[in-house]
Design a protein that fits this description.
Rossmann fold; seven-stranded parallel sheet; two-stranded parallel sheet; 13 strands; binds UDP-4-deoxy-4-formamido-beta-L-arabinopyranose
């Protein structure tokens, strides 16, 4: 079996991806220092796959400790790099924390990939690299505009670092630009484990519905959209996860003509905040307690994907619609009963 190192394997998308990789015949090891995640999520992965996942509790900003993982696992065929801080609001308050963590961890992983001749590399990027696009849907060739946060800048810089690095070595890389990952695994054994008050829309909805939050706000209803609220491309986390398996096989099967390919991972459908709330109320059969509030600084008005390239090149077909996303998110919230974790 081909061995894959998943960095950030105890995270939301990391854990879902490990489950998909194993179900598709890969052997997986994880590295995660659990600074923003819980090792317990791997018990959920084990319930889904029947496999116990080894996790190295290592800070990837420490090169020697990162190097030791590769020394112990010289048969690593590919790396999927998720490990990064991703709270947009926190990145605005603490930019240097984000530049140090997100970039040094990437640089160390790339150094080890080069030193140990690991051939395949998949990078967790984000639609945030597009900034505030002039037109939608965005394709992979849409010009990148200034990112709206230091978090987004670390994703733009991360892409550049990878594209420059692979010019001088045999590493093959794919950059996956996620739109808005939401929902939970259909088994309800894994899902998003929130830390503190949720910044993202769907956890805010489900925590309000379960009573963990007294109410939630719609950030702006005066945008030039169909109902005045912002438009996003919500994509089920399991669809995102499967795209990573397809991307790895694309590299392993040497279909990557240029040695770096970029793919948008979105459904291609844009939904407004109010439409998401309506979908949630329908599937949960509850009335959500929300108010219409002011715009949130840094929000882009509308962004959703043209996903033709991933469909054609990777054979990727998203399986979950908006109602499915809301149903799995709600099932998971009810399972964890609104528990949140402190950092
Ligand atoms: C979505 C919409 C909010 C909360 C972020 C990152 C992006 C990616 C996905 C990692 C916006 C509105 C939200 C609330 C609201 N992450 N909203 N009330 O900002 O599109 O993207 O997560 O790659 O990089 O930037 O996601 O879920 O925070 O917001 O009205 O309580 O929901 O204003 O319009 P966002 P989000």
């Amino acid at each position: 079996m081909k061995k894959i190192l998943v960095t950030g394997g105890c995270g939301y998308i990391g854990a879902h991806t490990i489950a998909d990789l194993i179900e598709n015949g890969f052997e997986v090891i994880s590295v995660d220092n659990n600074s923003r995640s819980h090792i317990k999520i791997l018990e959920g992965v084990q319930k889904i796959t029947g496999k116990k996942i080894k996790n190295y509790i290592v800070d990837l900003c420490i090169l020697d400790d990162t190097h030791a993982i590769f020394q112990e696992n010289p048969d690593i065929t590919g790396i999927i790099h998720f490990a990064a801080y991703k709270a947009v609001g926190e990145s605005v308050k603490k930019p240097l924390l984000y530049f140090n963590n997100n970039l040094n961890s990437l640089i160390n992983i790339l150094k080890c990939a080069k030193n140990f001749n690991v051939p395949h590399f998949v990078f967790s990027s984000s639609c945030t690299v597009y900034g505030n696009p002039e037109e939608v849907p965005v394709t992979e060739n849409t010009a990148l505009k200034p990112a709206e946060s230091p978090y987004g800048v670390t994703k733009q810089m991360g892409e550049q670092i990878i594209m420059e690095t692979i010019k001088s070595n045999t590493l093959n890389a794919i950059l996956l630009r996620y739109f808005n990952p939401v929902g939970a695994h259909i088994s309800n054994h894994i899902g998003e484990i929130p830390f503190g008050k949720p910044a993202n829309l769907v956890p805010a909805i489900t925590q309000t519905a379960i009573g963990k939050l007294p109410a939630m706000q719609v950030f702006g209803t005066d945008y030039p959209t169909k109902d005045g609220s912002c438009v996003r491309d919500y994509i089920h986390v399991s669809d995102i996860a499967h795209a990573h398996t397809l991307a790895l096989n694309f590299l392993i099967d040497k279909k990557n003509d240029s040695n770096c390919k970029i793919f948008n991972l979105g459904t291609g459908n844009g939904y407004t905040v109010l439409e998401v709330i309506k979908s949630f109320e329908k599937i949960s059969n509850t009335k959500l307690n929300y108010t219409l509030g002011a715009r949130r600084p840094g929000d882009v008005v509308a962004i959703y994907a043209n996903n033709d390239k991933a469909k054609i090149k990777l054979g990727w077909v998203p399986q979950y619609n908006l109602d499915d996303m809301m149903k799995t998110a709600w099932d998971w919230e009810q399972k964890i009963e609104g528990k949140t974790f402190t950092l």
